[in-house]
Amino acid sequence: ILTVLLMCLISNHRHRVLDVDLKPKHVHFNEHVAETKAKLRHTRIELANQHDDDNAGFGIREMKSIDVIQEIPTDIVLDQFQKNALFSFNSKDVNADILKMPELHFLLDMKNPCWLEPLTAVDPYARPLPYLMRRPHALDGVLQYNSKMFNNSKNPYRVRCLPYVYILGVQKCGTSDLYERLAMHPDFHPCVNKELHWWDNLPTAVMANLKTGRNKFQQFLSLDEYISYFDDAALRISETKETHGAAAEQMGITGEATPNTLYDNKNWREYPGNADRAEPKYLTPHFMHRIHSNAKFLITLRNPTARLYSGYLYFSDKPTLEQFHKWTTLVVKQFNKCVSEASERKCVHETYHPTNELQLLKLRLRTGLYVVDIEEWTSVFPKENFKVVTLEERNKDPIRQMKDIFAFLDMDPIDFATEELIRELHPVNVNKRKDATSLGPMLNSTKTILDEFYKPYNEQLAHLLNDPTFNWA
């Protein structure tokens, strides 16, 4: 009877959840997620308070502002300070060699990889962080908490966290869409910006002199500054841990979704250990493994032929079918010429060398060679740490795919109201130019060239993942 009553109440409240404008143009992604979750929590509060005394106040606890967290025992705090002192010091050096970074010692009772550092000032940020230019008040809650901690604790500390999960890519395969659906889960706490572009722009002394022109917010940040983007999420994870009690200590996680991380090693020649090599010895997964060897990864893909065309429409100022065909013919010819003279691996990574003219064409053919990059990552991390999905399947059945993803991340099952939010979410970050959307499909001759080019790579990927879905036949 109680179940029937709950379902009726959910149905009555459903319009409140679904009335949310899921992607208003003037609202930042994180603000939008917070607003949507607030709507969802409001429904949960009423259901819990009216019909389930055991769950009463669950939503209210979620809505409480961050306050001074009950202090972690002194012995644990001091042990963390001692064990992570070298890491904390070295992580502040923008030119630090990550492969030589001291080991991090995470808190054992938290699911997300988090640790403690001494809080030496209320505002510990040495310089403005680029992505916070868009959200200047994003860390206000952190600074308020720091003030209370700094003035009321004998051993003031700050909780630092790395992502539990990374959405590695791929560009134009629905990374924004996947991240937003992931953020609908009440136990996921987004960082201040979905894309951080740190791992695909690993800082070194030499790289600091390169003009990559990636985006106007980019500056070469230290590892400590990268971690700062997760300080708000870290505080919320800690708040969840303390206020929900021992039974919920493993709940909260955070993550990011830079769509280039899977494949973009354009500056591999400047990475430590790669000097004077014809092919890279160290790539992004090697550096990430040094910091967090048990990270989890989500990869969202789509038919590489469709992905290339979508990217062309998105990045080109005046796209035409004829230009796309011309550029496609050129890049396929040049890549095939390269692999006839050198190793495939060399050609894949040479494509993104800063001096290569193909970088200027806005036609990223090699991005669709998914199997090449996934094999690079699975040679460093265990294969079971990866979940690879397709945009096509998510469009068909978003609930099924997201449930699989939540299970992969060891997250609690979602309730009916969250399912409805995920189901009704509109596609995010689609092509916006009128001339692009009205252009229509690519020429059949172009499609044939690309399908034939990508076919062997798709077959290898399907074999690697033991899933014929990735043939896109």
TrEMBL record:
Source domain of life: Eukaryota
GO biological process, one term: hexose biosynthetic process
GO molecular function, one term: N-acetylgalactosamine 4-sulfate 6-O-sulfotransferase activity
Occurrences of domain Sulfotransferase (ranges): 165-434
Residue stretches in coiled coil: none
Cited InterPro entries: CS_Sulfotransferase (IPR052654), P-loop_NTPase (IPR027417), Sulfotransferase_dom (IPR000863)
Protein name in the entry: Sulfotransferase domain-containing protein
Organism field: Owenia fusiformis (Polychaete worm)
